[in-house]
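Hi P.,

Sorry for the delay on this. The queue was packed all week, but I finally got your sequence through. Input first:
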Amino acid sequence: MNSKVDLLKSYNVDVEKALELWGDMDSYNDSLKEFKDTLNSKLASLEGYKNAGDLQNYSILVHSMKSEARYLGFMADAEIFYDHELKSKEGNVEYINNNFNVVRETVHKIVTLLNNYFSEEELSDKKNILIADDSNIILNYLEKNMTNEYKVIKALDGSDAIKVLQNNDIYAILLDLNMPGIDGFHVLDYLKENNLIEKIPVVIITGDDTEQTIKEAFTYPILDVLNKPFNDKSIDKILLSIQSFYENHKI
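Then the structure:
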């Protein structure tokens, strides 16, 4: 079971029970998305029926909301919808008017939960790119241009970069050589000593580095160089190089 399901369980969603019906997480997630995307419009229609005193259609729609909630494991919320289904069938307009806020709040909580759930899912599906540079401006600019495809992890020096490498699966590294304290060459040495230098593509970020510095960097099997100042086009070129690295290595 994926760890992000814990977010649903914290809301007392019976995921295991729901999976007895849906069979696998992909099917379940597809149904959750549809549920999320239609709930607010259903709530608006439900309120319209309430205001018009149309309890027949109110009952039909809230019954549908109840059934979907049950199928997806939202058992406590289904009971709230079921309560309104029964009261609408009884013609209890006063109860429905006095307690409609409960339905509205329930829908809001479900939608908020599922927005967070799918946000975490999308983030978790992205590969990690480590960017190590002592300039926040550089870090933020690169992050802005990469977050659609990757999860960016930033480091301001070599020490932070090594800690990131020790605690995360890294897809690629953009590495400044001249950083305070532990510099980029120490990071390259760490990668080499831990047999990572040929497994993780490394792109050197360089600005005013000397020709000798760049030459020394190429004594390591680095993938490419990103020269400052860079732009969207040069960043896209680097990202294509990284993708090509994995295609060529069939990883």
